[in-house]
Write a structure and sequence with these properties.
By secondary structure, the chain is an alpha/beta fold. The chain is 33% helix and 17% strand. The longest helix has 20 residues.
């Protein structure tokens, strides 16, 4: 695929990012776009591998390797190189309902598994994917395609994140009547309120939601299952129900002083900021003029750093309990595993530009929060840890004598999520796994309750957008089989 020997002729080149000084002054997307010729050159780097690892997603060493939605990556790389953009879009939509989302926010495990990555920087798969999707919308190729008829079967989908939207889109293609229930005031789940505008413009989300609505998917906002409606009621009203509500219970940090004001979960902070931008309402939580400490790494922690920088924080520190990754792959992290190497994400790059250094403190954790006379957090006591093996389990251990305090007017907890909220399944005897996720076998997605299915983070735990889309599509296939006795859905 691509140009024969193209990887020897062209170097890896990503689209430019907007200059830091410019982009932190607004909430616009920070990535620029490929010129057409540049996208074609990058597609030409695809190697025509005998066995392309990029397009088959599997788990190695606890992380995704390759594409969990099985994108036909070598095929659309070749089509882009040849200038056949519409055909490239058709190939992309065969496996991925929302390439405009994944092209922006997926961490691209496909690139970690690119065979070219063994000897050279891998193909810029993610950027090419976004270029194809954006071109499709710009050219008017992506239009509503409502089904020609209906089966008379009704399906409820709980949650409108990537899993729920993918499930709804596929079931609608199978001619079923689909209603998506969302507790927030806008559709999109974490795509809308969990991912900041500078990574994913909300107009991009709304554009796809409007298209799904035009194709016949019904959306109901402001309805929380477990509070406004019960799961049992939905089971009585619909022929099948799919739980795609995500793993939204945040992991807390119950240390001394946790009750102080000014300590918030990351998603609460990010949601309030996005809602303020969309509605023009005053910020309820702001980093302006404050010393901010983000506890936890990962994408959510990075988004908190970038948001705080844009709000005008006085300082920003991010505590990371893991050691700093090496500059290059370690011997125990070979291809095609996800490369665990040091890098600056967009928020870290912005913080370094403003404050002079990477905001992350590695092998560091919080010991206690210190508040003032009014009960607001003012400092955080931290210490260094080391990882030790005890009884076959590797645990973080405090290094005594490393305690110190940091100023902290605003603390953001970005330590991941524990599972779906229990209220969703109240009233029905739904089995859960030991991690409190809804128990449903991968590939079947059926729960212990007939006609009730689960997919995405609600079933597998906190994961990637591509796994959510994979599971939403898979659950739709199994719901179709349950309703009709057979299925043609992929």
């Amino acid at each position: 695929m691509g140009k024969l020997g193209g990887f020897t002729e062209y170097f890896r080149e990503l689209p430019a990012d907007r200059p830091v000084g410019e982009r932190i002054a607004d909430w616009e997307e920070f990535h620029l776009h490929y010129p057409e010729e540049k996208a074609r050159e990058q597609g030409a780097r695809c190697m025509e591998c005998g066995t392309p690892f990029c397009h088959t997603g599997f788990i190695i060493a606890g992380a995704a390797s390759g594409c969990p939605v099985y994108n036909l990556i070598p095929e659309w790389n070749d089509l882009v190189w040849r200038g056949l953009w519409r055909k490239a879009l058709e190939r992309l939509h065969m496996t991925n309902n929302f390439p405009e989302f994944t092209g922006r926010v997926c961490p691209a495990p496909c690139e970690g598994a690119c065979v070219l990555g063994i000897i050279d920087p891998p193909v810029t798969i993610k950027a090419i994917e976004q270029a194809i999707a954006d071109r499709g919308f710009a050219e008017g190729w992506i239009v509503p395609r409502p089904p020609a008829g209906r089966t008379g079967k009704r399906v409820a989908v709980i949650g409108s994140g990537p899993a729920g939207l993918a499930c709804a889109a596929q079931l609608n293609k199978a001619w079923h009547e689909v209603t998506v229930f969302e507790r927030a005031d806008r559709i999109g789940g974490l795509l809308t309120y969990g991912i900041p505008n500078m990574k994913l413009d909300k107009a991009v989300v709304k554009r796809r939601v409007d298209l799904l609505e035009a194709e016949g998917v019904a959306f109901v906002t402001g309805v929380e299952i477990g509070r406004d409606r019960t799961l049992a009621e939905l089971r009585g009203e619909f022929d099948a129900v799919v739980i795609c509500c995500g793993a939204t219970r945040p992991r807390d940090l119950k240390i001394l002083g946790r009750e102080a004001e000014g300590i918030h979960f990351a998603m609460e902070y990010l949601t309030h900021n996005t809602r303020s931008l969309l509605d023009g309402a005053p910020l309820e939580i702001t980093a302006e003029g404050k010393d901010v400490v983000v506890i936890g790494g990962g994408d959510t922690g990075t988004d908190c750093v970038a948001t705080a920088v844009r709000q005008g924080c006085r300082s920003i520190t991010q505590l990371e309990i893991m050691p700093r990754p090496p500059q290059e792959r370690a011997p125990g992290n070979p291809w095609p595993q996800w490369p665990r190497v040091y890098g600056l994400d967009y928020g870290h790059e912005e913080a370094r530009e403003i404050f002079g250094e990477d905001p992350r403190l590695y092998l560091t954790t919080a010991e206690r929060f210190l508040s003032d006379a009014t009960g607001r957090v003012r400092e955080i006591m931290i210490h260094t840890i080391e990882w030790r093996e005890e009884a076959g389990i590797t645990l973080p251990t405090k290094v005594h004598g490393t305690e110190k305090t940091l100023p902290a007017d605003l603390v953001l907890l970005a330590m991941g999520f524990l599972g779906p909220e229990e209220s969703v399944i109240e009233g029905l005897d739904v089995e859960q796994d030991p991690r409190s996720n809804i128990k449903a076998e991968y590939g079947r997605f059926a729960t212990s309750v007939p006609g009730l299915f689960a997919a995405g983070d609600a079933r597998r735990g906190q994961s990637l957008i591509v796994w959510a889309i994979n599971e939403g599509r898979g659950a739709a296939r199994e719901v179709d089989r349950y309703l009709m006795g057979e299925t043609d859905l992929p």
